[in-house]
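Sharing a chain and its predicted structure for anyone who wants a worked example. Both blocks are below, sequence first, tokens second.
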Amino acid sequence: MPAVFEHLEEGGMSRAQLIEMARKDLEHGRNGTMDKVDEIFKVPVENYYEPGRFEREVRLIFRRIPLLLATTAELRNPGDYKAMEAAGVQVLITRDREGSVRAFVNMCSHRGARLVGEGCGSAHKFTCPYHAWTFSPGGDLVAVYSQDDFGALDKSEYGLISLPCLEKAGLIWVTLDPDSTLDINDFLSGYDSLLGEFGFDTWHHQHTQRVDGPNWKIAYDGYLDYYHLPILHRETFGTEIGNKANYYSWGPHTHLGRPDTSWEEYEGLPEAEWPTEKLVAGVWTIFPHISIASFAGGGRSVMISQLFPGDTPETSYTNQIFLMEKEPDTEALRKEADEQFAFLKYVVAEEDYATGIALQKNLDVGARSHVLFGQNEGGGQLFHKWVDTILETPDTDLPKLFQTG
């Protein structure tokens, strides 16, 4: 399986691990080799379309496992918020008056109306559009419209339903189960320390766009796969990277490196001088639904692909969240960034997801019993094994999957 790294302590050896991966990628580049797993792995085709399994994946994975729902850049200041739907749950993420991130079900405690429409904004209070009950950014019920007529009510008992959340490395995770006992730090398995090397907490949110796709696992398989790059993306960018990947994992989360002799340029330098921008290059996937890829057009940027199941097993949608290290300050830089984002939407929609939608139709026919993940596709193998494991794990045992020691 992919190389596995231990949990990192706060402020620990994240850069050392980046250097270690770079040296392994250099060694593979020199030798013309790559990481391989022991055997070919089979995934039953019905895993991609069977309605009962799909319902279980939504319920037991997306509604139990922490999801990366926002970035610090989207709600940086007290009063800022982001409202969205995730796996059928309407979520409101806020930054309260003290600057802490909070997450709630986006539902008025009176009769269940949605408080805020989807999107980002800033507000010092949230007033229900149905009967004007009002809540603070901290989730407290602060006013009941015509309370004398409504009747006596202890407002402290009717605040918004709070959801577990955690802000780390400039990213915000939320668990959709309000009663979850799974510690988000344990779930991250130290991976957030590596992501912290990007410095996302100071980056700028430039743009978000949506792409519709096939079954969520077909879509996610592609994010864990360099094997297809010089074939499917030969006319766009795939030949620049090659078809070989080295996989490094922390719990269910996986970084894709590649055999790379360009690291020879830095071998004689102190490790402190190895460029961070290059050390964090490649693809970073966060189970069960995130891919982070770096780009340079219009200034240094990343595309955070935030994948969700659709309304049916055969559908999904992806929010492409673009963060930039610095906000473009000229029209030329803004134009270059916009062109980069439009290009990436085209590649995903017209190459990756168009291929996946056609693939989905073939799998639905049932002419074959399974699909294959080769010895060179260890990341995909690990992903599907984690999906199976979590589906088989009861609520009481879920925290144990991610605990160490």
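Comments welcome. Residues 331-365 form the longest helix (35 residues).
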